[in-house]
Write a structure and sequence with these properties.
The complex is a heterodimer.
Chain A lengths: L4 H8 L15 H6 L4 H24 L9 H23 L1 H7 L1 H4 L5 H11 L4 H30 L8 H5 L15 H18 L6
Helix pairs in contact in A: 1-8, 3-4, 3-5, 3-7, 3-8, 4-5, 4-7, 7-8, 8-10
Chain B lengths: L1 H10 L13 H11 L18 H31 L7 H33 L8 H10 L7 H16 L12 H12 L34 H6 L15 H6 L11 H14 L4 H21 L10 H6 L3 H8 L10 H21 L7 H34 L1
Helix pairs in contact in B: 3-4, 3-5, 3-10, 4-5, 4-6, 5-7, 6-7, 7-15, 10-13, 11-13, 11-14, 14-15
The chains are: A mainly alpha, B mainly alpha.
Amino acid sequence: MGLSKKNKEALTAPLLKDNPVTVQVLGICSALAVTSKLEPAVVMGLSVTIIVSMANVIISLIRNTIPNRIRIIVQLVVVAALVTLVSEVLKAFAYDVSVQLSVYIGLIITNCILMGRLEAFAMQNKPWPSFLDGIGNGLGYAMILVIVAFFRELFGSGTLFNYPVVEKLGLYDCGYLNNGLMLMTPAAFILIACIVWYQRAKDKSLQE
Amino acid sequence: MKFLRNYLNKVKPSFEEGGKLHAFRSLFDGFETFLFVPNDTSKSGVNIHDAIDSKRIMSIVVISLVPALLLGMYNIGLQNAIAAGVADSTSWFSMFLFGLAVTLPKIVVSYAVGLGIEFTVAQWKNEEIHEGFLVSGILIPMIVPVGCPLWILALATAFAVIFAKEVFGGTGMNIVNVALVARAFIFFAYPSVISGDAVWVATEPVFGLGAAVENVDAYTCATALQHAVNGAPLAGAAPDVVLSTQDMLFGFMPGSIGETSVVAIAIGAVILLWTGVASWRIMFSVFAGGILMAMLFGYTMPENPVAQIPAWQHLILGGFCFGAVFMATDPVTSARTETGKYIYGLGIGAMAIIIRVLNPGYPEGMMLAILLMNVTAPFIDYCVVQSNISNRAKRLTKKK
């Protein structure tokens, strides 16, 4: 791809060394709430990616006309409109998932990643880099969600995307039991902590 | 003894820098200092609290746990024999052997997993081996039901050692009791193997010992506290009484392996208090907190069956004694200040009874009470120290 170095940075940095969840520690609430199964986690990750990239583009386009004193309200209106759109689309085409996600789609409005990216990036940059930054942050968030949800669903319910992996492997007959702790929110905390641990052990520049 | 020392001296060089077995240096170190008091004393860390090193303290705790463990083993055999209906024809010795055969694998698994992780971490971080697992390793098998599968025990031990201890910096740095974290892990992850009424009694023979319980699926045997939740009278003149006071004291009732016998725990308590390893302030205040809370509930909640258990029975049932003597007094996780110890102990006793009475989902509250107060202990200490500072400051200004 013919991306300039700066644009490439905006897209790839949030995936690993500037990950919104594990490095900036933003968006933790939803990472705990929607990760007990893979399906809602994937949908949530995609929704946030779409919303944050679109909001970034819109805010970036009008960044020079927004009066500085009411910029937060303007940002909120844009985000709220996008969240409502995504929520309606989900209700129309993926009703089951939207029921599982319940209030958490609506609560994307309060996701710190969104406001953070709008304030920190979109307000100072042109639409194209802002779009890439939004995609990068959204995918970085989605990636952590999927990793956490993978372990929680596999060990907590013994399934992956509702496919009964453990049952097919015949582990239940050997006395294997599902780990109920994995279905509780503390497990997401522990798993995210493990990811943070692993990442900082690998990347010395992140160690404080 | 001489022979052991000579042997250790002989093999020592191969574990040192450049030796053949250098990779197992921490293992050797661990065993050497376990067998013989090292000549060099440490200058920082946990050992600073006492002149004898922490391995000696831990050995005393392990010794004080032995009576409860032995009686627990016998009780396993007894409950199995009662369940199979052969209690009259089985000798006490074969009951004990059965209990031993059931308990020993658990102890081995707990030590193997826990020490394995500790040795690996010590080797990896290039540190001396931490000895803290000596006590946790024996505590973990004692606070689980006899029906707990070994792989779950291994998983829980690994979880507790890694997440409750090593990530905080190893022995002496943990905020919460490691053995209780292992139990809490089982409690929340695999509730079916640690609660309910089918896990407390062994139902299958092991190595030809013990008796098979016929009709296993229909056989249930709840703990005393579970009975209380269900509304059965525990003691007294009623015909459907569940337990005699004598059974409660000696621990001839279903329960976790080491927790049932008050008498055996009392022997352990005497050893701990006599050697000064455990704090009498904590032990005393845990019981005081339990009694006060149980009496309060007894007066105020006449409808609640658990609240109507007499206060003294609350103390000798379930894991209350075991927790008060061996868990709450853990010097690492309890409050350090003398006043703080009273507050900490009262909190544990009261909280345990509150959980028992007010939450029918959890018949036993001791584990959660101790974990909760473990977390609060640093705050209690902080408040005690601060109030002392402000009192002295006040005294100073008054004098002027």
